[in-house]
Amino acid sequence: MPRAAITSVGHYVPETVYPNSYFEQYLDTSDAWIVERTGIRERRFACNGATSDLIIPAARQCLERRGISAEDIDCIIVATVTPDYFFPSTAAVVQRKLGATRAWGFDLSAACSGFIYALVVAAKLVEAGFSRRLLLCGADKMSSIVNFDDRATAVLFGDGGGVVLLEPSDNPDVGVLDAVLYMNGEGGQYLYMPAGGSAKPPSLETVQNKEHYVFQEGRTVFKEAVIRMAEVTLQIMERNGLRAEDIAWLVPHQANLRIITATAERMGLSMDKVMVNIDRYGNTTAATIPLCLSEWYQAGKLDYGDRLILVSFGAGYTWGAVYLRWSLPKPD
Length: 332
Ligand code: UT7
Hints:
This protein has helices spanning 20-24, 31-38, 51-66, 90-98, 114-127, 151-154, 204-208, 218-239, 257-267, 278-281, 288-298; strands spanning 3-12, 17-19, 42-44, 75-79, 104-108, 134-141, 159-169, 175-183, 191-192, 215-216, 249-252, 307-314, 318-325. The protein starts with a strand and ends in a 7-residue tail after the last strand. The chain is of the alpha/beta class. The site of oxa(dethia)-CoA has 21 residues, from helix 2, helix 6, helix 8 and strand 12.
């Protein structure tokens, strides 16, 4: 079986920057609190458009870098919790807007672990020969489901999109090499959007009660995230005989700098080997990991054969880690 390798990347964030000082103007919060408790300094919010509009520029960049056209794509997977519509899927919207007329596809819902979950599914499709050019998108327009009057959540999130292209590789040494995924539905109550689904359809009451926004019991989720992120990274290192010095980059989901630092510490990894951009984008949910990959590639900080560990924790609870070896040379 061939390996599934990442053969191109792309990303997009909206132009409008909202620094912490934006929230200081109307909420009982401070730049100092936000930076100290989360590591976030600013984030981007899309003033117009939907999640698919965060994906399209990222997808175009991804295709252009690979030198192929949208018609060459045979499958589109979109990881998101902020789909354009309940149905049709955002993948179908992306297919139309991109002109990827030969692609089938679907959305995958695993919140902050969406990209990792989707990467595993995508890799299996490519390994099985069911897809040869798969566009994997992680994107969220979190501003569409964040209560801007709630200081506990408003300051945490941002909008963005990241895309990777997966193709089969005959070189068994590069590509997606291993993965572990977990879920514990008991954690669902601590991070969710209460209304809008079939459990609680939209009504005047749900709107008045502000139930169409992210609800999070931050401290509970934080404690679980610290434990699970460290546990799953150590597990994947052990399974693959990896020591800290073998790893070029840890690519963690960007929810809180303190969670990221704690994970790196448990791995024995110094922070200069950890991709961090939470200071500039906040938590963009399914987009955090592909955003990191694309930015680091663009900056020439990723090289062929680099060993990467991708790790995330999020609503569900869902969590997991992927071990891959980077299959692209540095850009010219
Ligand atoms: O991405 C998916 C998974 N999500 C996560 O991994 C997020 C996990 N959780 C977190 O990152 C953190 O729990 C938060 C950043 C959300 C909160 O940080 P914390 O250190 O856990 O704070 P806390 O919720 O325990 O709140 C401490 C205090 C509270 O005040 P009291 O009760 O001690 O008086 C909060 O009301 O900080 C208060 N607080 C704020 N103060 C200023 C909460 N939000 C703010 C705020 N500005 N924005």
